[in-house]
Design a protein that fits this description.
single chain, 4-stranded antiparallel β-sheet, Alpha-Beta Plaits
């Protein structure tokens, strides 16, 4: 009995973690790897559910199933955070003039700027698209050189052209960083 409970719990953790990764792949436009992952996900789900449904009067199985689901949510979200898969678009609004674009370019970031105006005068808008794993380094540089800057973080699903598309090496098996066509 206790072995079944541990199996149910473990399978739920794996199932929900895979589900989280599958959704991440779908949201980033990688539907074929997501479909492949869903095969393993469903096999695990059906097996774990079968262990619970076969003995519905055994409440520890239900609790193990639910606790495994919750733990899988936590595990999957932590795994997603560690993988830092995809890209982040960071828009920074600073007082004008600023040295931040030059500093970021010297550090290898692709930077686009344009003038703007705000409530308190002239501003400069800076747009940087980076791999998610480099976001903390970018924020560290922004904070060090423009601590009062207004910063917005966005997650682009796709993009086309530009510095990043030419310079960033692809991860084997991943899609190139371009916008999907009309059939997507």
């Amino acid at each position: 009995m206790w072995l079944d409970i541990l199996i149910i719990f473990g399978l739920q953790v794996v199932y929900v973690s895979l589900m989280t990764l599958r959704w991440l792949l779908i949201m980033k436009g990688n539907r074929y790897p997501a479909a492949a992952l869903s095969v393993a996900e469903v096999i695990i789900w059906v097996y774990a559910l079968g262990l619970v449904v076969s003995q519905l009067d055994d409440w520890p199985r239900l609790v193990a199933y639910a606790l495994g689901f919750a733990t899988g949510q936590l595990t999957g979200s932590k795994l997603e955070e560690l993988l830092a898969y995809g890209y982040t678009a960071v828009q920074v609004v600073t007082k004008s003039p600023t040295e931040l674009p030059r500093i970021l370019r010297e550090q290898g970031f692709g930077v686009t700027t344009w003038p703007a105006s705000g409530r308190d005068g002239h501003r400069e808008v800076i747009l940087v698209v980076v791999r998610r794993r480099w976001t903390n380094e970018l924020f560290r540089l922004i904070e060090a050189h423009e601590p009062g800057a207004f910063t917005v973080l966005m997650e682009p699903r796709s993009f086309r052209g530009g510095f990043l598309a030419r310079r960033v090496p692809l991860i084997p098996g991943s899609s190139p960083p371009i916008a999907p066509g009309p059939a997507a």
